[in-house]
Design a protein that fits this description.
Helix content is about 80%, strand content about 0%. By secondary structure, the protein is an all-alpha fold. This is Ferritin-like domain-containing protein.
Length: about 210
């Protein structure tokens, strides 16, 4: 991850696409959270998470302006890194998590949506707590104008809030969370591999 991010940060076009890719994923996460809302019983924390993930998507998109205002204006595939893997990542995690939760809990449709929100968001927050600090470390190393420190602080808060909600959901949630984390790890590795291959191809072509 560290060496890959170093390569990304040192190339303006690739760096802009990376920021756009992160923005896409934050936006997709926010939309997933909203899609999991109960028609009437929506908690303040759930609204807060959706709002903050949308803000992260906006913030990351805005950071691209520091590289080149004409780059990555949309989420079209040619403006993302490993577009197919990027689009499938969160969607696949959601589907696989729902399948697992349905097999292990007796849940209604609305209950399953909420459970998926809890476990999928938890897994993504654990990943964010690993990824963003490494990214910031490299940005600092190369004295980049880009910063993600504000996102790191909010993601740490999100993780704590997810743990509190999972404590209320089930006493043995950690056992199930470990399975979801393993599913996420496999998908994350596929995503990183796809990005690595794409960057290698670009460098080779140059």
């Amino acid at each position: 991850m560290y060496s890959l991010l170093e390569k990304i940060v040192q190339q303006n076009e690739t760096h802009a696409k990376w920021l756009n890719t992160l923005s896409f994923m934050e936006n997709a996460g926010a939309r997933k959270i909203s899609a999991c809302e109960h028609p009437t019983n929506v908690s303040l924390i759930q609204l807060k998470h959706a709002a903050e993930e949308h803000r992260h998507a906006y913030y990351l998109k805005k950071q691209i302006l520091k590289i080149d205002p004409d780059m990555c204006k949309t989420y079209n595939s040619n403006e993302l890194l490993a577009a197919t893997a990027t689009r499938q990542y969160l969607h696949s995690l959601d589907i696989k998590a729902c399948k697992y939760l349905q097999q292990n809990f007796n849940l209604s449709k609305e209950e399953l949506k909420y459970a998926a929100y809890l476990f999928v968001t938890y897994a993504i927050e654990v990943r964010a707590d690993e990824l963003y600090p490494v990214y910031q470390e490299i940005l600092t190393k190369y004295t980049s104008k880009i910063m993600v420190k504000s996102i790191i602080l909010e993601e740490e808060g999100h993780l704590e809030e997810m743990i509190n909600q999972l404590d209320e959901f089930s006493e043995d949630w950690k056992i199930h969370a470990e399975i979801i984390l393993e599913i996420e790890k496999d998908l994350h590795n596929q995503w990183i591999d796809a990005i690595s291959k794409e960057i290698l191809q670009v460098n080779y072509a140059e």
